[in-house]
Amino acid sequence: MGRDFAVIGLGRFGGSICKELSREGMEVLAIDRDENKVNEFRDIAAHAVIADSTDEIVLKELGIRNIDHVIVAIGDNIQASMLTTLMLKELGIKKITVKAQNDYHEKILNKIGADHVIHPERDMGKRIAHNIISNNILDYIELSDDHSVVEVKAGSKMSGQTLTELDVRAHYGCNIVAIKRGKDVIVSPVATEAIKESDILIVIGADKDITRFEKNLVLED
Ligand code: ATP
Fold this sequence. Notes:
Layout: E1 5-8, H1 12-23, E2 28-32, H2 35-40, E3 47-50, H3 56-61, E4 69-72, H4 78-90, E5 95-99, H5 103-112, E6 116-118, H6 120-133, E7 137-142, E8 147-153, H7 163-166, H8 168-172, E9 175-181, E10 184-187, E11 200-206, H9 207-218
Parallel strand pairs: 1-2, 1-4, 2-3, 4-5, 5-6
Antiparallel strand pairs: 7-8, 8-11, 9-10, 9-11
Helix pairs in contact: 4-5
This protein binds adenosine-5'-triphosphate.
Residues 8-14, 31-34, 37, 52-54, 74-77, 80 line the site of adenosine-5'-triphosphate (ATP).
């Protein structure tokens, strides 16, 4: 069986991806040009190698072509990140995920052909901002520029009402797709399910609809 994943760049972000994948039993090839970083991962990843990923010959020698999914987590060195992505693309890697430093970097990575560009600091900033705006919003995941999934505390306004009575879809255009109740998660709740004050609702929809839902049904007067 070929190796499952390669992680290039073992900073805080790449390092935590490498640790988590390895913990889940995946075979990870961990690459960094810094010897100290590589040493940290010798007992964690299946393979840990000191290499400069901008060197095409080195990449070929590492057998990177046999790896299904490569994660490029080179931080500040935008040029190295772009060059590495370009070479991985040319080598025919099936799936390339790259961490972007800024919007400009993201745009170029998309043009080069990265399959998935992630921007963890920006996304986490947005999630925290939503939580700061409203204490009721516990988590926020952006699906597109104008759609998201939010995790919101039900609160007293909805308490005791069933999903039919609330009819969130008709009134607000968004959907309650799951309810967290203590340790239980009710996925696709039935129409007769009554909301409890301490429930946490997972709501999906357009941002403007979620905001209306939150203003009318979640926030206390
Ligand atoms: P994070 O933002 O995830 O905390 P970081 O701030 O540690 O990351 P950097 O230190 O800029 O980010 O880069 C991450 C890692 O990428 C570093 O360990 C660095 O040695 C490695 N790296 C940078 N360029 C290359 C390269 N050309 N080849 C291999 N590894 C590289």
